[in-house]
Amino acid sequence: MESFLSSIDYKDPIWISIAFLFGALSRGIGLPPLVGFLMAGFVLNIFGVTGGDFLNEMADLGIALLLFTIGLKLKLKDLLKVEIWGSGLLHMLIFTLVSSAIFLLLTQLNFSLFSELTITSALIISFALSFSSTVFVVKALEERADFLSRYGQIAIGILIIQDLVAVLYIGVSAAKIPSLWAAGLIILLFIARPLIIKLSMKIGHGELLLLFGLSMALGGSALFEAVDMKADLGALVFGVLLANTPKAEELSKALLSVKELFLVGFFLSIGMAGLPDITTFIVVLILLPLLIFKSGLFFWLLSKFKERTFPASKVSLALANYSEFGLIVTIVAVSQGWITNEWLVVMAVLIAVSFVVSSTVNQYSDDLYSRFQYRLKKYQHPLLLEEDSGIDLADIKILVCGMGRVGSGAYDQLKKHNKLIGLDIDPKIVKSQLNNERKTYYANVSGADFWSKIDIKNSDVEWVILCAPNVDANKAAAKLARNWGFEGNISATSLYSDEKEVLIASGVNNVFNIYSEAGAGLALHGQKTSIVKKSKESKG
Fold first, then answer.
1. Sign of the C-alpha dihedral, residues 365, 353, 61, 294?
2. What are the φ and ψ backbone dihedral angles of 228, each rounded to 5 degrees?
3. Can you identify the CATH homologous superfamily of domain 398-532?
4. Could you tell me which of 44, 66, 71 has the C-alpha nearest to residue 55?
5. Closest Cα to residue 140, out of 130, 127, 149?
6. Phi then psi for 510, rounded to 5 degrees?
């Protein structure tokens, strides 16, 4: 921590302020703030600004915390599914070979960077381009509240497979193998896991939980680096140790703001990686269309592995970008003299542009699926991995979407006099609600696939109640319900007053602000209690 603080330069707060301005502008035009952070890095680079130790430290901490929070939500058994590791590894192999062939054809153009490529350098660059961005995809899933969705879990699983391949590549490239202590560390962690979980349960909430999370993420990184393993992998492994435990979700939320802060340094550092010129932009424009092949290959492979059309298409669009790990692969290749430094600048610009393209396309992914679903379903495997949920809407009048505490309360209040069902994206919540005799189904209501299957327009449903904890999920669900012909009443919860107009514009009829309504409910409850008490006293 002392080295981190001592690395702060007087100019660093200025660069962070500039990143904030670009992030705000990016959000203002409908793009994720991270795109603005990247642009800030490139603009600063144009004016000769380079990243110092402080930004590098921020970047490293941000990546460590990101991978730790991924580990908290990771289900290891999902990585063992053939549709995840099979499609992930096959995609990297096919994409690398096809892209390398294209690179070798481009050498015939005798154009600058392409003319100097060899088979080895073409393979390395193609391999670097085969990665998709963990940082970008995780942030996009969090913003859309799709982390627990079917496509979200598949996308994260494939990204983890890619990250493991990257770790192997870096180890082999640097001729660096784990020390003999590495095996002992893994065994020790396995033995210590029950104690770590017990400790997490004893520390309560608030700042102690935050410090515990930081200690686990950064301590895991330091321990793995000490035994000659990748530090980022240590953060991921320590997150996995706490996955599926009672404190995992709360710990993830506690680290959210800290993680976001440090990731600003990561995106700024990418933008400052090098100064692009006209040749760089020409090469970027030539390589950018490979995203179409990359996305299409994901869709084709997942379809062959018997995934349904909707999750396959959503995964293919979510992973249609280039990755920060690709930049790391390129840095290693440059340090070994396998490719020239110009390709490092090309990769940095290409990653930034791919983020802009991917974020724009993913904003309209549900609309695109609704428009092309019948064409896409021609490629769907006749034997699917999982059957449709079989939700029966016959005589159902109310859908409660999001069966957390708010949704459960709404369900209990309405079930006496109405026919209703609950819907939730988390299988654990569905199972818990069924055990509590609440009729609940697994469904991703913020995805077009659900609404396209239930024929909401011709159903008996009169009221849809949206109780997701994320306003974007409620907004997406309301918009999709209207797009698929629902004309009944839609109610939605919100946390902040400025979300009301956004929800109403998306098709919501009435908005329930949880905080303000809870206060009003508390006052009303107190009044009733006081009246009853006075009545009893007067009678006495």
1. positive
2. 65, 35
3. NAD(P)-binding Rossmann-like Domain (3.40.50.720)
4. 44
5. 149
6. -145, 145
Cα torsion 297, 300, 301, 302 to 10°: value is 120
Where would I find the beta strands (DSSP E) of 366-468? 398-401, 420-424, 440-442, 463-466
Please give the backbone phi and psi of residue 324, each rounded to the nearest 5 degrees, phi first: -60, -30
Q: Domain ranges in the chain?
A: 2-379, 398-532
Beta strands in 333-402 (DSSP E): 398-401
Asked whether 159 and 67 are in contact (CB, 8 A), the reply is: no
* Residues facing residue 401 across a β-bridge: 423, 466
Contact criterion met (CB below 8 Å) for 345 and 274: yes
Backbone angles phi, psi at 490, to 5 degrees: -125, 125
Measured CA to CA in angstroms, residue 520 lies from 413, 423, 466, 497, 512 at distances of: 18, 27, 20, 15, 12
Q: What pLDDT does residue 524 have?
A: 64
pLDDT in tens, 256-291: 777 777 777 777 777 776 667 788 888 899 999 999
Q: How many CB atoms lie within 10 A of CB 311?
A: 23
The residue among 204, 214, 221, 215 whose CA lies nearest residue 258 is: 214
User: How close are the terminal C-alpha atoms of the chain, in Å?
Assistant: 66
Task: Name the residue among 114, 163, 164 with its Cα closest to residue 138.
Answer: 163
Give the Cβ contact number of residue 191 at 10 Å: 9
The pLDDT assigned to 338 comes to 85
CATH topology of domain 2-379: Na+/H+ antiporter like fold (1.20.1530)
CATH fold match for the domains 2-379 and 398-532: no
Closest by CA to 106, choosing from 127, 95, 122, 94, is 122
Spell out, as residue ranges, where the chain has pLDDT lower than 50.
1-8, 10, 387-389
Say which residues have a Cβ less than 8 Å from residue 77's Cβ, sequence separation at least 6. Answer: none
Rounded to 5°, the CA angle 91-93-94 comes to: 65
CA distance 455 to 484: 8
Distances from the Cα of 442 to the Cα of 5, 17, 310, 427, 445, angstroms = 47, 43, 15, 6, 9
User: Would strands 420-424 and 440-442 be described as parallel, antiparallel, or unpaired?
Assistant: parallel
Amino acid at site 521? G
CA distance 477 to 445: 6
Tens digits of per-residue pLDDT, 134-182? 878 887 887 776 776 778 888 988 988 887 787 677 666 655 567 778 8
Contact 227, 186 (CB under 8 A): no
Residue carrying the six token digits 């949704």: 407
pTM listed for this prediction: 0.70
